[in-house]
C-alpha cells in the first residue's frame, strides 16, 4: 500500500512537472478535458437549477392537488378540434362537487381572467398585474403567507364583495412603506378594499411570483367578465384528504362530473383532470431529456480531451524512456510502471476537470447576479460527477501509453534513451 502511495506522489510530481516544463503543450492537451467537463457540469447545473426553480414554485401546492378544466397540462391523444368543443367547468359544478364528493379536504373555483390588469390607488398605478379570481377555499389549498391582514372569507367570496389581497411588489408600488390595509384601490374599473398583503416571495425566472399577483373573489370577477367561453378560463381546484388513494378519488370525481353533464357510457370525458404529480413527472421527463442531449453533445468535447491526454502521455513515455529502463533494470515490475503512468494521466485529467468546474462555479455566480432571485446551483453531486468523469477520462486515455511503457525492454529502453 505504501509503495502505491509513493507512486501516486511521484506521479503527481511528474504531472506538475509536465505542467511547468511544457506549459503550452499541456494547456492545449488539457483544454479538451476542461471544455468537456465545463459543458457537462454546466448542463447538469443549469437543468438542476431550472428544476429546483419550477418545483420550488409548485411547492406551495400539494402534489395530490387536482385541477379540472377543459385543457390538459401535457399532450393529449384527443384531437385539437374536439378539445376546443369541450365546455368550461361551471360555478354550479363546483358547488355540486363541494356538497357531494367524498374524501374532499378543500375545493375552490378559480377564473383565469385576462392578464395585464392595472390596479390604481390615487396617482399610483401597478400595471400588468396577474389576477387570481378564486373562492375563499383557495387559501386552504395553497400555502399562502400573509405579511399583514387576511384572506377573504366565505360570505365575501359568495357575495363577490369588493375586497382584494395584494402581492408584496404591488403593495410597495401602490403604497410605498405605508400599510395598504383598509385602503381602496380600483380594479376592473371598480372599487376594492385591500384586506391582505402577501409576504415577499422573490422572483422565479420561469414560473412567475406571487409578488406580482393579486387575489379577488371569483364572483367579483364573474360580475365583470361573466362566463363567456374564451374570455375567462374557469377551473376547479381540489385537494383530497391525506391518505386517500388518488386514483380512486379521481375516478369518483370523473364519475360525478360525467353524471352532471349527462355523458353516456362509451362517451369520452369532455373535461380534463390534471394532477400536479403528473405535471411534476412531465417536468422530470423534460429535464431528463435535456440532460441526455447535453451529455451527448458534451461527450464529443470529452472525446477530444481524451485524445489530448493520450497524446501528452505518449510524449511523456517517450521523454522518460531512459528512466523507465533504469527503473526496470533496478527491479521495478511492470505493474509499478503501469501504475505510475496511469496515476499521472488521471492526475492531469482531474486537473483539467477541476479547472472546468471552477469556470462553471464562476459562471454560476455571475449568471445568478443577472437573473434576480433565480439561483444557478452547482451541487456537491455535480462536483463529484465532474471529478469522477475527469478521472475516468484520464484512466481510459492513459491506459494504452501506460501499457506500452510497462512492456518496454529495460536494455532497449536505456539504449533508446541515451
TrEMBL record:
**Top-level division of the source organism's lineage:** Bacteria
Which compartments is it annotated to reside in?
Cell membrane
Chain ranges passing through the membrane: 27-47, 292-315, 336-363, 383-405
Asked if the Swiss-Prot or TrEMBL record annotates the protein with the keyword Iron-sulfur, the reply is no
For this record, the Gene Ontology CC terms, alphabetical, are: plasma membrane
ABC3 transporter permease C-terminal domain: residues covered? 296-410
Tell me one GO molecular function of this protein.
transmembrane transporter activity
Residues forming the MacB-like periplasmic core domain are: 26-255
InterPro entries of this UniProt entry? ABC3_permease_C, MacB_PCD, Macrolide_Exporter_MacB
Q: Which UniProt keywords apply?
A: Cell membrane, Membrane, Transmembrane, Transmembrane helix
State the membrane topology.
Multi-pass membrane protein
Assigned protein family: Belongs to the ABC-4 integral membrane protein family.
* PANTHER family per UniProt: ABC TRANSPORTER PERMEASE YTRF (PTHR30572:SF4), MEMBRANE COMPONENT OF TRANSPORTER-RELATED (PTHR30572)
What this protein is called in its record is: Putative ABC transport system permease protein
Species per Swiss-Prot/TrEMBL record:
Christiangramia gaetbulicola
User: Top-down, what is the taxonomic lineage of the species of origin?
Assistant: Bacteria, Pseudomonadati, Bacteroidota, Flavobacteriia, Flavobacteriales
Amino acid at each position: 500500500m505504501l509503495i502505491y502511495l509513493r507512486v501516486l506522489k511521484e506521479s503527481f510530481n511528474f504531472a506538475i512537472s509536465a505542467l511547468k516544463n511544457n506549459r503550452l503543450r499541456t494547456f492545449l492537451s488539457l483544454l479538451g478535458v476542461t471544455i468537456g467537463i465545463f459543458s457537462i457540469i454546466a448542463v447538469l447545473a443549469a437543468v438542476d437549477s431550472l428544476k429546483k426553480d419550477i418545483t420550488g414554485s409548485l411547492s406551495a401546492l400539494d402534489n395530490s392537488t387536482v385541477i379540472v378544466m377543459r385543457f390538459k397540462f401535457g399532450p393529449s391523444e384527443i384531437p385539437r378540434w374536439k378539445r376546443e368543443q369541450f365546455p368550461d367547468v361551471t360555478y354550479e359544478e363546483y358547488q355540486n362537487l363541494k356538497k357531494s364528493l367524498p374524501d374532499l379536504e378543500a375545493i375552490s373555483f378559480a377564473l383565469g381572467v385576462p392578464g395585464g390588469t392595472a390596479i390604481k390607488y390615487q396617482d399610483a398605478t401597478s400595471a400588468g398585474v396577474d389576477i387570481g379570481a378564486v373562492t375563499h377555499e383557495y387559501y386552504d389549498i395553497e400555502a399562502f403567507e400573509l405579511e399583514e391582514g387576511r384572506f377573504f372569507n366565505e360570505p365575501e367570496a359568495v357575495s363577490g364583495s369588493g375586497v382584494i389581497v395584494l402581492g408584496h411588489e404591488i403593495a410597495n408600488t401602490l403604497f410605498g412603506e405605508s400599510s395598504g390595509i383598509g385602503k381602496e384601490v380600483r380594479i376592473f374599473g371598480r372599487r376594492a378594499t385591500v384586506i391582505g398583503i402577501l409576504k415577499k416571495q422573490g422572483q422565479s425566472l420561469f414560473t412567475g411570483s406571487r409578488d406580482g399577483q393579486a387575489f379577488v373573489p371569483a364572483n367579483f370577477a364573474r360580475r365583470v367578465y361573466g362566463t363567456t367561453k374564451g374570455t375567462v378560463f374557469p377551473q376547479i381546484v381540489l385537494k383530497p384528504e391525506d391518505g386517500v388513494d388518488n386514483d380512486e378519488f379521481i375516478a369518483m370525481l370523473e364519475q360525478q362530473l360525467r353524471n352532471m353533464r349527462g355523458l353516456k357510457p362509451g362517451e369520452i370525458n369532455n373535461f380534463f383532470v390534471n394532477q400536479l404529480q403528473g405535471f411534476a413527472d412531465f417536468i422530470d421527463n423534460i429535464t431528463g431529456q435535456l440532460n441526455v442531449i447535453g451529455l451527448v453533445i458534451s461527450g464529443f468535447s470529452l472525446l477530444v480531451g481524451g485524445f489530448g491526454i493520450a497524446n501528452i502521455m505518449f510524449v511523456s513515455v517517450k521523454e522518460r524512456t531512459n528512466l523507465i529502463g533504469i527503473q526496470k533494470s533496478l527491479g521495478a515490475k511492470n505493474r509499478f510502471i503501469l501504475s505510475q503512468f496511469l496515476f499521472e494521466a488521471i492526475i492531469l485529467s482531474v486537473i483539467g476537470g477541476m479547472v472546468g468546474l471552477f469556470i462553471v462555479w464562476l459562471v454560476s455566480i455571475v449568471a445568478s447576479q443577472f437573473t434576480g432571485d433565480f439561483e444557478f446551483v452547482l451541487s456537491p453531486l455535480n462536483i463529484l460527477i465532474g471529478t469522477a468523469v475527469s478521472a475516468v477520462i484520464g484512466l481510459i486515455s492513459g491506459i494504452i501509453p501506460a501499457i506500452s511503457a510497462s512492456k518496454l525492454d529495460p536494455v532497449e529502453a536505456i539504449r533508446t534513451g541515451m
